[in-house]
Amino acid sequence: MSDNYLLEKHNFKMQKKYGQNFLTDVRIPSRIADGCTDFDVTDGKRADSLILEVGPGAGILTKELAKRFTKVLAVEIDEELIPVLADSLAGYDNITVINKDVMKVELAPLLAEHRNIDGKKLPVSVCANLPYYITTPVLMKLLEEYGEFSFITVMVQKEVARRLCAKPATDEYGAITAAIGLYGKATKLFDVSAGNFNPKPKVDSSVVKISLYEPAKYTDEQIEKTSKVIKSAFSMRRKTLVNTLLGLCAPGFDTKEKLSDLVTEMFGKPTVRGEELSTEQFVALAQRLFG
Fold this sequence. Notes:
alpha/beta; Helicase, Ruva Protein, domain 3; 7-stranded mixed β-sheet; 11 strands; 2 domains
């Protein structure tokens, strides 16, 4: 049964508040799932992992993930889609669907409950087609609240993908780029044209894979301090780093003169801006500011 048939069968009406756009080309979910693993599924075996899927929609990607991984945990906010998913995924015994808002879910206990199978603790990763309007909040929640993901693969607005993968000193580079660098490395896998969705969005999408550092590259303390610096540095994009950091009131660097001396010492000039610094440079700056 096609997803369109199931949506009509259950008299499903899309809700604009959820930013719903459903994939229509079955080849795209297969490519997304393939991008999540190098595991060969042609022999019927599955990679030994739990995949957290955020926003399964009608289940078109969920099924492809279930073919490739031991278990899929799909979190769907729209209760009207639950019966659709029950129909769509009826042939799979390794999928669990829960009706919750991922932004209100405590990830650690939820994943602890579902990642243990036969006494074995499965690796956990994320794969999702994220609604455009909530991409950044969901990504940051996933990165900040749970430190055991192997990777996070997401389909996002093409413009957002460029920001996630941007290099310093480019127009696309911003706070989200630098923040992701604290946890891992983002790579664009491929683009998806707007015509592959129903309803058709106004912009194209891209699939991005964030490979998380294993082991973690930075401590929780480093991440906390650096996150404050990154947020401050990009709070006024066209301002110099010195001007944006004044509001932090860092001990020993509470005047413009002191900050100017520090920035010049570290980066060669007092007029450097936040978008010129790599994640590593932000970490070093945070260490100097807060010890």
